[in-house]
Amino acid sequence: MFSQKMATIVGVLILIVLTIMLLTITAQNQSHPNILSRLAINCVSPFQELVSSSIRTCQQIWRNYFSLVAVAYENERLRSALNKAYELNNRCLETQRSNNRLREMLDFKETNKAFQLVAAEVIGRDPSYWSKTMMIDKGSTDGLQKGFPVVVHRGIVGQIINTTGHYSKVLLIIDQNSAVDALLQRTRVRGIIKGDSAKGFFFEYVLRKGSVKIGNMVISSGLDGVYPKGLRIGTVSEILRSNSGIFQEIKVTPYVDFEKLEEVFVLFKPPNTAIQKK
Amino acid sequence: MIYLFYFGLGLCLIIIQTTIIPFIYFLGQFYDLLIPLILFLSAHRPINKGIPLILTIGFVMDCLSGGAFGLYCITYMWLFLIVGWLTNIVHAHSTILLIFMVAVGTLIENSFFIITSGSASLLFTRNVLQAFISQAIWAMFTGAFMLIALENIQKMWTRWDSEKRNT
After folding, report:
1. For the whole prediction, is pTM greater than 0.80?
2. Is A128 in Cβ contact with B32 (below 8 Å)?
3. Is residue A177 included in any domain, yes or no?
4. pLDDT at residue A276 tops 60
5. Torsion angle of alpha carbons B44, B49, B54, B60, nearest 10°?
6. A104 and A71 within one domain
7. Is residue A242 part of a domain?
8. Which domain holds residue A159?
């Protein structure tokens, strides 16, 4: 009844429809790992861990044994930086004490102290240009769960989107599906930080009247329920104010170098810790 | 047995591209190393045996990636079908064609990713165009070598298999 050409066309059309249906369904129901995907991650990740740790060992050998000259210079530079840091630390301690006094006077809650840190190593990255994720070597057995924020000392890295027993997948904040409620440290102007698939972010929904200058620091506002307040995100690098529209277009350069991440910290609240009101 | 070998090779390529390639910063935006393998399988293996293998490899990639689940499976499947169809029309073993085949495969994969991301405006940004060009250039320079290496492995395997049967 049907010619072979007709059957091929119908087959291709059915495949296209199935493709669209499958992608629509899976795009809406992400991060629900089934047994098979857990199995796949648990089979591949140990090898990723092995290769990553081998590379790191080689890097360390190179750094330790072949870069001693550079280390001597760096040591001198770090000593001077340390002296400056001591001085800064002293000033920070003073500021913290006065801050605590003022907080007590205002009856504020100490929120960030309730968080615990779990150190993890990066064992693999997403090779695709379009999604920015990475695998870390800590999982649900270490107490990690979906939605926990991941940070480094320089600032926010991302959040956990998927965990298995010993491994977790982290969605980086430079991913285009990622968003962080943020504010400018100087002027407290609020907006949403969104990844743009490259190495930076866009600071969106900032009103035109909001005062923004290049070099301003962007920090998390704590209002998204994922990232605690005050974590560093990046600095404003470009501002575009169009004649029409109610928002400004702001580009932000991240503090974190996402290409060179090796170790990260996962922040989480221990279940039994109740925030004490002073 | 040969399919188990290709599956193992696919896993090795997945591990290389998720661990070693990101450490080599000068490579910039490198293309998906599994594309040459898929193109090779598409040109040399029948659909009924090639597709399950491709889907398994795609499934592993989907588990490790942060995109929509099934994106790699579907992209690899379509790549397999499109290139399989193309090899019926043109001569798949021509060197010039090999050079362009991996680059075209990379472009097809990226187009799929853009379509599924749902924002066509992405296509016209500088970073995306840079990534496209970088991946295509790397694919042209190295992809053909990978395809030639795969063909040699295939020949060695066939020779070894026939010797084993004769003895």
Report:
1. no
2. yes
3. yes
4. no
5. -140
6. yes
7. yes
8. 35-62+115-270
| Residue ranges with strand state E in chain B | none
Q: A194 and A125 in one domain?
A: yes
pLDDT tens figures, B109-142: 887 777 776 666 666 677 777 888 888 888 888 8
Helix (H) or strand (E) holding A179: strand A179-184
A153 and A234 together in one domain: yes
Cβ atoms of B1 and B109 closer than 8 Å = no
Mean pLDDT of chain B: 82
- Closest CB from A40, A124, A132 relative to B18: A124
Residues of chain B neighbouring A136 (CB-CB closer than 8 A):
none
- A167 lies in the same domain as A192: yes
Confirm if A265 and A150 have CB atoms less than 8 A apart: yes
Classify residue A277: in a domain, yes or no: no
Residues A131 and A92 in one domain: no
Q: How many domains does chain A have?
A: 2
Between CA B106 and CA B136 the distance in angstroms is 7
Whole-number pLDDT of residue A113: 60
Backbone angles phi, psi at A181, to 5 degrees: -75, 120
Distance from the Cα of A182 to chain B's closest Cα (Å) equals 23
Contacts of B17 in chain A (CB under 8 A): 127
Do A158 and A213 sit in the same domain of this protein? Answer: yes
0.90 surpassed by complex ipTM: no
Interface A-B: count of C-beta contacts within 8 A: 113
Q: CB A135 to CB B65 under 8 A? A: no
> CB B21 to CB A127 under 8 A?
yes
